[in-house]
Structures are given as C-alpha cells and as structure tokens.
Amino acid sequence: MSKEAYYFSHDANARQDPKISALMSVYGAEGYGWYWILVEMLREQSDYALDKQGKYTFNALAMQMHCTRDAAEKFVHDCIEEFELFDTDGVKFWSNSLLRRMAMREEISQKRKKAAEKRWSKQEKDTNVMQMHSTSNADGMQGKEKKVKEKKEKEIKVNKNKYADYVSMAQEEYEKLVEQFGETGANERIVNLNLYKGSKGVSYKNDYLTILAWERKNSKEQKKSIFNQGEESKKRQEVIKPLTTEEQERMSLWEEELPF
Fold first, then answer.
1. Residue (of 160, 45, 51) closest to 98 by Cα position
2. Which tens digit of pLDDT belongs to each residue from 134-186?
3. Which helix (H) or strand (E) holds 163?
4. Which residue has the higher pLDDT, 49 or 3?
5. How many domains does the chain have?
6. Are 153 and 168 in the same domain?
C-alpha cells in the first residue's frame, strides 16, 4: 500500500463543528473516536460508502469500534438521523463531507497529471526542434528553452489548495500565515476574506497577498493611535513580519484590486 493510498484531509478544528459538538455532547470523546473510525473505513471503500443492511455489517463495525453490535448500530443511526453527519439511501451510508474532499483531491490530481503530460510533451517537441538547429546557435536556443522550462515548472509547482469556499492559496503561503499569526489567526483571516469575497462577489489574483495587504493597512491605521492603545496594540505590530523583497514587488501590483 502506497503512502498516499488512503489519505484524506482532516480539519484541525473539526471538533468545533456544531454537528460534531452535538455528537460529543451525547457520546463524549469516545463518540468522537468512533466517528473518525467510521470515516476512515468509508475512505477505504472504492465508492466511499458502507453497507447498512448486511447481516453482519454492524458486527464488523463493532469490532473496529471496540463496542457492542447494538452500540455500533445505534451510533450509526444517530449519526444519520440525529447529528446529520452521515447520509443514507437505506442500503448504504456515507459522508457528504468526505465525498466533497475526495472529489476535490481527485480534481487536483487530474490537473497535475494533465499539466505534467503537457509539460513533457512540450519538452519533447522543443528537443526535436533544437536538434534541427545548427551548432552555431545551439547554445543560445538551449538557454532560451531552459528559461521557458524553468518558468513552466515553477508555475506547475505552485498548486493552490482550497481553504474556504472562495479562498485558495499555495501550501507554502498558508504555512507563512500560520508562522506569522498562528493557526487560529491564519484561519480567522481566511474566514474574513472568504466572507468578504462571498458577499461582494469579488475575486483576487492572490488571496495570500490580499490578506497581507489588509494586515498592512490595519497596521498603518493602528500606528496612528498606538500610544492610546497600550501594550496590546504594540504586540500586534510585532506580530506582522516585514515582507520579503519578492512579496513587496508582488504586493505593489495587488493594491489596485483591494477594496480600500
């Protein structure tokens, strides 16, 4: 089994979801563990669904959950009917959240595959063209094609992940936000940008730089009254790290799009 064979994304704050909170209010931490055992089992199925009517279905689930058959059956029932964490057609049950995550992962995988095929096809074509040129200008052509190849490879490597309905950014960019503001702070800024974009119907070329631009604007406004805001304001100024030269150059191209 490959390392990524049964991978699926799992939100770090999943326990704070209202439906999960409702489940935990009844079943406690044990129920939280049971829920993720079932989600992992769903992920292992080719159609991401588990049989609900099999004679020994709940015996098998109970063995994985380390509980009785009746407890397993009641828990699945409550997850469907009470907490709405699973859905069913009467024959099988599944997680709509898992289906969305796996569809997104498959879409990203297909895009990467097509991009790689296109890149290698272009490289093969460029190689054939280069072989037809004379030796006198071969070095010049190789230098040009190398730059094109490096640019294409750089573009392919910058794959953006979706962190909210309207907010996407590269994994490296998200990690920079977490480094600057902490995981909670980074997620709060993503939620704020998501709400703004969703309500206004606007879009930006780079959501990561948009968040940094908003922070810089807020920082400038707070500097005007820093002596009246006390130590809390000073701490906020220290959190925002200076931009790199590359980010400053990209930021200058961004501010025309910002809503202020």
1. 45
2. 555 556 666 677 776 666 665 555 688 989 899 999 998 899 999 989 999 88
3. strand 160-164
4. 49
5. 3
6. no
The whole domain housing 87 covers 14-94
SS3 content of the chain, % helix, strand, coil (to 5): 70, 5, 25
* 6-42: b (≥16 Cβ within 10 Å) or e: eeeeeeeeeeeeeebeebbeebeeebbebbebbbeeb
Distance CA 61, CA 81 (A): 18
The interaxial angle of helices 69-81 and 18-44, nearest 10 deg, is: 120
Domain identity same for 175 and 195: yes
DSSP letter, residue 47: T
Average of pLDDT values for 105-130? Answer: 75
What's 42's domain CATH number? 1.10.10
Q: How far apart are CA 41 and CA 48, in angstroms?
A: 8
DSSP code at position 13: T
